[in-house]
Design goal:
With 196 residues, this protein is mainly alpha-helical. It is 57% helix and 0% strand. α1 crosses α2, α8 packs across α9 and α8 packs across α10. Bound molecules: iron/sulfur cluster. Iron/sulfur cluster (SF4) binds next to α8 and α11. The site of iron/sulfur cluster has 13 residues, from α8 and α11.
């Protein structure tokens, strides 16, 4: 994965936060279609905090769970304005004080924008880590995160997140991993048990 970076389009941390909230259970491609118009109407958290729910819903209705996400986006903007004066925090715990921002979203913002050694564990990272053997018997994303940050050298955590996501999205796909096209067969636990 020579270019290992997020596939979401964003300029500022606020824009990244909006995109990551929208991306839950939705493709980055779909989110990138939605965000330009959304940001025309709501270019800052100050504007979004005052938004009508119906207006936000209208602009994001082509993504999954638009009702919940519309509420969360407005709630996020309100907390961002009230508690953080419109400045997106870089701390994972502070980020999680905003509606719609769970641990994964917080880790993405901390890692992608602020370049912190945070490991956001989504479905791809969870699956690929387990198959490769980077995690052992991790039952939850948090358990996987703890194992990954324990063993991956700190300077590689940031880029590893993107490597694992992209590998899971394009090669080690959920149903039928493309082991024939994979360069990691010689170190992969799953492959050792399921050779071609
Ligand atoms: S060898 Fe197969 S299972 Fe292992 S990481 Fe590669 S694609 Fe995934």
């Amino acid at each position: 994965m020579p270019v290992a970076e997020t596939e979401l389009d964003y300029g500022s941390p606020y824009e990244l936060l909006v995109a990551v909230i929208l991306s839950a259970q939705c493709t980055d491609k779909r989110v990138n279609i939605i965000t330009p118009n959304f940001l025309k109407s709501f270019p800052t958290s100050e504007v979004l905090a005052e938004a009508e729910l119906e207006h936000v819903f209208e602009l994001i209705k082509s993504c999954s769970y638009p009702n919940n996400k519309a509420k969360n986006l407005i709630g996020m903007a309100m907390v961002l304005e009230d508690e953080f004066k419109g400045v997106v925090p870089s701390d994972v715990d502070e980020l999680q004080k905003m509606p719609g921002v769970g641990r994964k979203t917080a880790n993405v913002v901390a890692s992608v924008y602020y370049k912190k050694p945070a490991m956001a564990v989504d479905t791809h990272v969870f699956r690929v880590s387990a198959r490769l053997g980077l995690t052992t018997k991790a039952k939850t994303p948090l358990a996987a995160e703890m194992q990954l940050v324990k063993y991956i050298p700190e300077e590689h955590i940031n880029i590893s997140h993107h490597w694992l996501i992209l590998h899971g999205r394009y090669v080690c796909v959920a149903r039928k991993p493309k082991c024939k096209a994979c360069g990691l067969t010689d170190i992969c636990n799953y492959f050792k048990k399921n050779p071609l």
